[in-house]
Amino acid sequence: MNAAAPLNQRQADELTKRFGCAVTQWYGMTEASPSVASQRENEVNLKGTIGRLLPGIEMRIIDDDGNDAKTGEFIIRGPNIMQGYVSSGKVDSPMTTDGFMKTGDIGYVDEDGYLFIVDRAKEMIKVKGQQVAPAELEAILITHPLVNDAAVCGVYNDHGTSEMPVAYIATAVEGHQEQQRLKEDILAHTNSKVARYKQITGGIHILEAIPRK
After folding, report:
1. Angle at 126 between CA 149 and CA 75, to 5 degrees
2. Where does the record place the AMP-dependent synthetase/ligase domain (predicted)?
3. CA atoms within 13 A of residue 123's CA, in its CB half-sphere
4. Cβ neighbours for 119, distance < 8 A, ≥ 6 positions apart
């Protein structure tokens, strides 16, 4: 069992290869007692999804202004959802006026009703008003055969007017020239797969390992 964050596809495929068993994704949180959606065993070939909503749970996807959106924050409602957090004897409710709870997770639903998590709302990088998910770029970076691990964050440009995505990668490639060629190859590999505003414009830094908590 892997918990607290989405399992990327390369890790899921490696687990299946190593242990010869199916790896299914599930989505939930303590506030939802704890289940929201799950991937059935016969759906393991559907890559990247966390499955469909469980019976009795409703979900909307909203933008920063609370309007319905194709990609945005998941808000959920159902009999298993908590009423709020108790602090100093008072209930602090994260609910909307119509009883939906904000999850803090950014994602979308495809035409068949399968949910896909893009990232956490608090992790999003704001590039000239557009939202960029670090996890989306990280998932592309680790598909490069010479990238062992990757992390993406946002840094402000020299004018302080907008953030830029910056990538940190772990690789076994050594030597200055070899690493420079690798950076160029990785940029081409990644930027060709995303919209222009999502491209890694803040550069790539090579580390021995990506620090993990």
Report:
1. 90
2. 3-85
3. 18
4. 105, 106, 133, 134, 135, 136
Domain spans, the chain: 9-122, 125-207
Fold topology of 9-122: Luciferase; domain 3 (2.30.38)
Alpha helices in the chain, H assignment, sequence order: 9-19, 134-141, 176-191
What are the mean pLDDT values of the chain's consecutive 10-residue runs (213 residues total)?
74 87 88 92 82 96 92 95 83 82 94 92 89 92 94 92 95 94 96 95 94 78
CA gap 86, 211 in Å, rounded: 34
Number of Cβ within a 10 Å radius of residue 160 = 7
129 CB-contact burial (10 Å; exposed 0-12 / middle 13-18 / buried 19+): exposed
Task: Please determine whether the domains at 9-122 and 125-207 fall in the same fold group of CATH.
Answer: no
pLDDT given at position 200: 97
Residue 8's pLDDT is 76
Q: How far apart are CA 148 and CA 143, in angstroms?
A: 9
Kindly report the length of the chain.
Answer: 213
Per-residue pLDDT at 89: 77
For the domain bounded by 125-207, which CATH number is listed? Answer: 3.30.300.30
